[in-house]
């Protein structure tokens, strides 16, 4: 064939140059990734592995740990009703707080999205407020809000809703309010970004075709924000599972969470392997929830342009 | 109840409809009727109030005053989903998470139709817009033109009293725009729906409409058939807005017409202008370039400044005394010539 007879015009130098360019192109992303990857491996990966290893060590007398291999600590978490209870309490608190947070955050994000643009900055500022103050300061704030002589009691009595001063301090309710307050901003911003990706004319289009506001919500908004809802839920769940100061400071003394147990085993009981086992269990539960959320949010088709 | 002379209720009737945003009047006291099966176009520059009017008919904006009637029923207090209309939006506004069939079925489901009937109607309208077989596609698997055809099908499927078109072709490129324009025309001829169409593109308005409403600064300048609008523009604005025109500022005094610098211009007008300053408008296509020998009713000796090639014709930029204007002519230009 005549085509085959045409000699390659490419000189050796040019082809070599091209090959090295291709090589560079292939490895550039990897090289750019390296610093972040190194930090993740050194500061997160290795400690996590160390902790995993720690959870199998022995605990003898009052020594922090004794190298060895045992599953006793995991066994203890399962068999000890106190520990088992703490696991359930933590999951329950995190679930309720995340559900409430997602619902509140959803309404708030939707409001921000629907309102005219000039409102937006103020609403976003409001949503950011919990992040401006540290968790400890926020706890002090709640301490002035919930007790018998606190702001809430005063407001309820003076408006005549209740007749006697009440204290909601050191209740599970207070702990839940505290958790919700902390995780709301994260949830809000995740959901707002999802709402911002939706063409607002879809609502007009829906109304135009005869659907009322509730139908539009169920048929249009909810399906389009499902992925965002699940992401926000996972985020809240991670946050509320792991946080330890707020439920401890606002909840009742008997409110044992996994965070509290890790702290106690680590610092008071000097039982590092058991504390590590708790930490690993925490990681496992969160991983599981994220996995479920992920699998729920995969859809038949990626419909975004 | 609103009825015309023959006793038929108009598809749409607007009475003294007004709308302002803050201090800006968007629509001033609009009165209009749309007959059954009529294709009415609101044509005007941006900010003329045409889109606001459409949105008030659709229920997305509330009029400050006046009333809107659809098929004899007053609707201006009703939300969009309670009005018997369907809008084709600029970018389609198809639901991205629903298939083509589900998009079209949406309005039918809201109207409480049964499943077999919905399926039948979806198939029917898809055939009408020539998209049979696209039922299971998602909007992001369609081209821009196909999306607009699905939007059209979705609106037609519910068989509304009026179809509202909100610049449906403006997001498409030229060849597609022309193609879809013919498609809409064909559908209107075949199905005879009543439609309100909003556009700033006069060729769209001319090609599609039974009547055109020319809007400017929130008010109506002229309502007429496309032919009437182009033959007898009612105002200076309409004359300028429809088609191209050149403007000659003139001064009339003592039965003579002069340019602004006093140079005499030999013009014979059907109605001689009263004393004062005037602007004379001419269609560039109605000016003919000719050699000096050809005699005409009105002729001006001009100098050719420069020439543009427009594909079909040449555009000559001309000067006669203090007057500057242009004309379009298919012939090759001549350095000194007369026009008629």
From TrEMBL, chain A:
Name listed for the protein in its UniProt record: ABC transporter permease
Annotated source species: Mesorhizobium qingshengii
SUPFAM superfamilies found in the cross-reference section: MetI-like
Membrane topology: Multi-pass membrane protein
Places the protein is found: Cell membrane
UniProt feature coiled coil, ranges: none
Residue spans crossing the bilayer: 27-49, 91-114, 121-145, 173-195, 228-250, 270-293
Assigned keywords, A-Z: Cell membrane, Membrane, Transmembrane, Transmembrane helix, Transport
Sequence ranges assigned to domain ABC transmembrane type-1 in this UniProt record: 87-293
Protein family: Belongs to the binding-protein-dependent transport system permease family. CysTW subfamily.
From TrEMBL, chain B:
Keyword set includes Protease: no
GO function terms (MF aspect): ATP binding
SMART domains to which the protein is assigned, alphabetical: AAA
Alphabetized UniProt keyword annotations: ATP-binding, Nucleotide-binding, Transport
InterPro entries for this protein: AAA+_ATPase, ABC_SmlMolc_Importer, ABC_transporter-like_ATP-bd, ABC_transporter-like_CS, Mo/tungstate-bd_C_term_dom, P-loop_NTPase, Transp-assoc_OB_typ2
Top-rank taxon: Bacteria
Family: Belongs to the ABC transporter superfamily.
ATP-binding keyword on record: yes
All residue ranges annotated as the ABC transporter domain in the record: 12-242
Organism: Mesorhizobium qingshengii
Name the UniProt record assigns to this protein: ABC transporter ATP-binding protein
């Amino acid at each position: 064939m005549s085509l085959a007879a045409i000699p390659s015009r490419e000189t050796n130098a040019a082809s070599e140059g091209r090959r090295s360019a291709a090589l560079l192109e292939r490895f550039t992303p990897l090289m750019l990734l390296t610093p972040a990857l190194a930090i993740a491996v050194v500061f997160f990966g290795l400690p996590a592995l160390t902790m995993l290893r720690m959870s199998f060590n022995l605990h003898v007398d009052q020594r922090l740990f004794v190298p060895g291999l045992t599953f006793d600590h995991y066994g203890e978490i399962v068999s000890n009703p106190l520990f088992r209870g703490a696991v359930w309490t933590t999951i329950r608190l995190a679930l309720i707080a995340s559900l409430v947070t997602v619902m509140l955050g959803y309404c708030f994000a939707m409001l921000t999205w629907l309102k005219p643009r000039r409102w937006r900055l103020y609403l976003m500022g409001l949503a950011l407020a919990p992040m401006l103050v540290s968790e400890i300061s926020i706890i002090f704030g709640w301490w002035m809000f919930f007790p018998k002589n606190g702001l809430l009691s005063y407001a309820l009595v003076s408006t005549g809703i209740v007749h006697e001063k009440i204290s909601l301090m050191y209740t599970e309710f207070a702990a839940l309010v505290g958790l919700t307050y902390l995780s709301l901003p994260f949830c809000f911003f995740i959901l707002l970004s999802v709402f911002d990706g939706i063409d607002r004319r879809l609502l007009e289009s829906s109304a135009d075709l005869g659907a009322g506001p509730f139908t539009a919500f169920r048929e249009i908004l909810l399906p389009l924000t499902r992925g965002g809802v699940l992401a926000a839920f996972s985020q809240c769940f991670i946050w509320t599972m792991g946080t330890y100061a707020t439920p401890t400071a606002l909840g009742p003394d008997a409110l044992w969470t996994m965070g509290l147990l890790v702290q106690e085993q680590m610092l008071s009981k000097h039982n590092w392997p058991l504390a590590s086992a708790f930490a690993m269990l925490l990681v496992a539960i969160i991983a599981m929830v994220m996995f479920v959320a992920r699998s729920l949010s995969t859809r038949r088709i990626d419909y975004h342009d | 109840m609103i009825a015309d002379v023959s006793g038929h209720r108009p598809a749409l009737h607007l009475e003294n409809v007004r709308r302002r945003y803050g201090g800006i009047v968007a629509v001033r006291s609009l009165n209009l009727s749309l007959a059954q099966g009529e294709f009415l176009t609101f044509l005007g520059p941006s900010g003329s109030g045409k889109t606001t009017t459409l949105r008030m008919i659709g229920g997305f904006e509330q009029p400050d005053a006046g009333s809107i009637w659809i098929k004899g029923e007053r609707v201006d207090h009703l939300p969009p989903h309670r009005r018997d209309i369907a809008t084709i939006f600029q970018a389609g506004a198809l639901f991205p998470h629903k298939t083509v069939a589900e998009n079209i079925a949406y309005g039918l489901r809201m109207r409480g139709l049964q499943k077999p009937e919905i399926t039948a109607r979806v198939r029917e309208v898809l055939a009408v817009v020539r998209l049979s077989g696209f039922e299971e596609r998602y909007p992001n698997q369609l081209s821009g033109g196909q999306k607009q055809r699905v939007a059209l099908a979705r609106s037609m499927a519910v068989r509304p009293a009026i179809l509202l078109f909100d610049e449906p072709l403006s997001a498409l490129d030229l060849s597609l725009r022309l193609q879809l324009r013919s498609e809409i025309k064909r559908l209107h001829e075949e199905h005879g729906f009543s439609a309100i169409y909003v556009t700033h593109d006069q060729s769209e308005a001319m090609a599609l409409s039974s009547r055109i409403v020319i809007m400017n600064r929130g008010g109506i300048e002229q309502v007429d058939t496309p032919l009437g609008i182009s033959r007898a523009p009612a105002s200076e604005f309409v004359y300028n807005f429809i088609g191209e025109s050149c403007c000659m500022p003139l001064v009339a005094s003592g039965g003579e017409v002069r340019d602004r610098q006093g140079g005499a211009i030999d013009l014979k007008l059907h109605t001689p202008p009263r004393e004062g300053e005037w602007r004379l408008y001419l269609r560039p296509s109605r000016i003919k370039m000719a050699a000096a020998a050809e005699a005409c009713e009105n002729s001006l000796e001009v100098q050719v400044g420069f020439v543009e090639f427009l594909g079909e014709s040449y555009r000559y930029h001309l000067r006669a005394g203090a007057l500057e204007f242009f004309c379009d002519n298919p012939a090759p230009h001549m350095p000194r010539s007369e026009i008629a």
